[in-house]
């Protein structure tokens, strides 16, 4: 267990140095809710990767899934991104996790990373990281998983326009207690109503 935790932390630090190729797990990468072109500025966009790239990352760090988003704004007044996770149980909000604020540079490409790593059969660790040029901020925690028979996760956006002060739902983890297929829907409200437990990764840009 200690080895996996160490590797996951090392994996997060590697992003700061730009070691890894940028992008998330391909078959979970549905490009949805697209309101901006992936190349458009003033937007945050999900970055897919190839299966081979993901396999190399997974073998090195034991990562269950990896999501990467790039973002850029021409608005010089926007200098910060806040990230957090919302936890819902049986359709109701329970708590906010992983609240983190990080500075960002306008007019330059920045990146946000979210990776999930199994520590053991009962625990899954997540790390949220933001890289702004040479600076690097991260937050981490863990999720108990023994009570749930099935789960899945995915990106909620393809590319979305940045509106200062408006929250954006980036990714989600969904779990249910009964065995069976789990269909990922790119709709936060539908996920909250459909599953026993839901984690939503969100961000907000502000001055």
| Oligomerization state | single chain
Enumerate the spans where pLDDT stays under 50 for 5 or more consecutive residues.
2-39
Element order: H for helix, E for strand: HEHEEEEEEEEEHE
Q: How many whole angstroms does the radius of gyration measure?
A: 16 Å
Mean pLDDT: 79
Structure commentary:
The chain has 207 residues and is an alpha+beta fold. It is 16% helix and 46% strand. It is built from three helices and eleven strands; from the N terminus they run αβαβββββββββαβ. The protein has helices at 2-16, 51-61, 188-194; strands spanning 43-46, 63-72, 80-89, 92-103, 110-120, 123-132, 135-144, 150-155, 159-161, 168-176, 197-206. It has a six-stranded antiparallel beta sheet with strand order 7-6-5-2-1-9, with helices on one face. It has a five-stranded antiparallel beta sheet with strand order 4-3-11-10-8, covered by helices on one side. A hairpin with a 2-residue loop joins strand 5 (110-120) and strand 6 (123-132). The longest helix has 15 residues, at 2-16. The protein is globular and about 50 Å long.
Q: What is shown here, in short?
A:
This protein has 207 residues and is an alpha+beta fold. The protein has three helices and eleven strands; from the N terminus they run αβαβββββββββαβ.
Any key phrases for this structure?
single chain, 207 residues, alpha+beta, 3 helices, 16% helix, 46% strand
């Amino acid at each position: 267990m200690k080895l996996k935790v160490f590797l996951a932390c090392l994996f997060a630090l590697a992003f700061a140095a730009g070691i890894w190729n940028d992008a998330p797990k391909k078959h979970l990468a549905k490009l949805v809710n697209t309101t901006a072109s992936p190349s458009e500025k003033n937007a945050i966009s999900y970055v897919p990767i190839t299966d081979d790239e993901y396999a190399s990352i997974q073998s090195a760090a034991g990562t269950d899934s990896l999501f990467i988003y790039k973002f850029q704004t021409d608005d010089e007044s926007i200098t910060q991104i806040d990230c957090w996770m919302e936890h819902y149980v049986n359709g109701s909000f329970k708590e906010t996790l992983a609240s983190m604020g990080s500075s960002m540079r306008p007019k330059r490409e920045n990146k946000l990373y979210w990776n999930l790593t199994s520590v053991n059969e009962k625990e899954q660790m997540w790390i949220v990281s933001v890289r702004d040029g040479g600076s690097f901020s991260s937050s981490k925690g863990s999720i108990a998983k023994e009570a749930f028979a099935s789960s899945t996760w995915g990106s909620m956006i393809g590319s979305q326009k940045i509106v200062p002060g408006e929250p954006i739902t980036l990714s989600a983890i969904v779990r249910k207690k009964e065995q069976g297929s789990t269909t990922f829907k790119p709709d936060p409200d539908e996920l909250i109503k459909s599953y026993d437990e839901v984690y939503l990764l969100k961000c907000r840009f502000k001055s």
